[in-house]
Each structure stands twice: as structure tokens, then as C-alpha cells.
Design a protein that fits this description.
Number of strands: 6
Order of helices and strands: HEEEEEEH
Number of helices: 2
Strand order of the largest sheet: 1-4-5
Structural class: alpha+beta
Strand content: 15-25%
Helix content: 10-25%
Length: about 120
């Protein structure tokens, strides 16, 4: 992960601190299902906030992408690994994931990296 990654949080961002989000239980309180859901979500939201603020988002370990040929079909392979998404949620790939490249992948592979949209390969 990149230590210089910064993320601007807005008021619509789910990670912005919302002080009223934690349920304050008291004796005799009538509880609804949403109260229990909210009490379960609060620690997860705090963990996600910690992950994002302390570690940033991206690949933590593994998740290397490679290709392999299976007969005449080219496949993309993603290795097992761990990462953090933009909302601070941890995701894990426990085993290798393999997908066939779609027909016409050769045209996509011929494009230059960082090529502006609408510009042909080769900068013409």
C-alpha cells in the first residue's frame, strides 16, 4: 500500500464520523430490529474507518495478476491475497481466481497505457 495515499471525505461519505450512530442502551428501553443492526454496524464502521485512515486503500499482500495459456484460450489469473477497498473494508481472495479473456482482447491489449479516450493506438 502507498503511504502517501490520501482520501477526501465528504459529508455523504459513509466513513464520516456520525456521533449519533452508536446506540446508547438503557434499562427499560424498547428496542427495534434496526437498533440491533446499528449496534452491530458501529464497531465494523469504526474498524473500516481505522483501516482507511491508518493504512489507506489498495493491495496489502498478494493479488498478483498474471496470464496463462490454456490451449488456444488466454486466461487472466489473480493470485490469493488481501486488500482494503476505498471504504476501508478488508477483502480477501483465498484461492487463485482464473477468467478467460473475451474475444477481441488483442485489440484491447494493443492500446498504449494511459492513452486518452478517443485517441487511436500509436498516438494518431
Amino acid at each position: 500500500m502507498n503511504a502517501t495515499t490520501t482520501t477526501a471525505l465528504t459529508t455523504t461519505d459513509p466513513l464520516v464520523f456520525q456521533p449519533g450512530k452508536r446506540v446508547n442502551f438503557s434499562a427499560g428501553m424498547v428496542l427495534r430490529a434496526t437498533d440491533f443492526i446499528q449496534s452491530q454496524d458501529y464497531p465494523l464502521d469504526k474498524l473500516n474507518q481505522h483501516n482507511l485512515m491508518a493504512h489507506g486503500y489498495g493491495i496489502a499482500r498478494g493479488l498478483a495478476v498474471s496470464t496463462k495459456v490454456d490451449g488456444t484460450t488466454l486466461k487472466i489469473v489473480v493470485a490469493p491475497g488481501l486488500g482494503i477497498d476505498r471504504l476501508g473494508r478488508v477483502f480477501e481472495l483465498g484461492q487463485e481466481l482464473c477468467a478467460d479473456l473475451p474475444p477481441g482482447w488483442e485489440r484491447m491489449a494493443a492500446c498504449q497505457p494511459h492513452q486518452p479516450l478517443g485517441e487511436k493506438a500509436g498516438g494518431v
